[in-house]
Amino acid sequence: MATALKNLSDYSAAQFIDISEKKFGLVVAEWNRAITDVLSQGAYETLLQHGAKPENVFRNTVPGSFELTLGAQLLAQHEEIDAVICLGVVIKGETKHDDYICHAVAQGLTNVGLKFNKPVIFGLVTTNTEEQAWDRAGGKHGNKGVEAAVTAIQMLGF
Ligand code: RBF
């Protein structure tokens, strides 16, 4: 049951709206790229699996997670974009950079979503170790990229 509450990788698509005409922005941080690639692939495949057209998914990269906010804003400002999915991996280091980045991104993405009145999804994996990040990129805790895409679809049906 906890899985059903915490892990959207095992979701039910029964309530999903038709997304065949929806347009999605995908913003992916290049920092920890091996992991963010898996998140990105999970999100992309999930959108297609539920009816999005490949030409309607606009995938862009930004250097690091801190840049996700501006990347999201640059996409969200286009009227034709219906939802933006942001993906990054921040692993705790010896300094507090992770705190600053995560708070800035959380606040920034919230602001972008509210400013443009459209779903801007926070797909930032924030962990203490690289292993924990892999656990959330196709490992024992699912794929947070899949979950971010599911969240976008769910919010479009709100
Ligand atoms: N970006 C990430 O996406 N994940 C990280 O774990 C990460 N760690 C960083 C650690 C330090 C000390 C610095 C300075 C930057 C880090 N960044 C990380 C990059 C950050 O998101 C951003 O791209 C840069 O700070 C440039 O604005």
How does this structure look, described?
Mean pLDDT is 93; it is low at 1-5. The protein contains six helices and six strands; from the N terminus they run αβαβαβαβαββα. The longest helix is centred in the last third of the chain and has 20 residues, at 97-116. It has a single domain (22-156), classed as 3-Layer(aba) Sandwich (Rossmann fold). It is of the alpha/beta class. It has helices spanning 2-6, 33-49, 68-76, 97-116, 130-135, 144-156; strands at residues 24-29, 57-62, 83-91, 120-127, 137-139, 142-143. The strands form two sheets. It has a four-stranded parallel sheet with strand order 2-1-3-4, sandwiched between helices. A two-stranded antiparallel sheet has the order 5-6. The protein starts with a helix and ends with a helix. A hairpin with a 2-residue loop joins β5 (137-139) and β6. The structure holds riboflavin. InterPro entries: LS, LS/RS, LS/RS_sf. It holds the Pfam family DMRL_synthase. (2S)-2-hydroxy-3-oxobutyl phosphate binds at residues 94-95, 136.
Describe the structure concisely.
The protein is an alpha/beta fold and 158 residues long. It has helices at residues 2-6, 33-49, 68-76, 97-116, 130-135, 144-156, and strands spanning 24-29, 57-62, 83-91, 120-127, 137-139, 142-143. The strands form 2 sheets. It has a 4-stranded parallel sheet, sandwiched between helices. Strands 5-6 form a two-stranded antiparallel sheet.
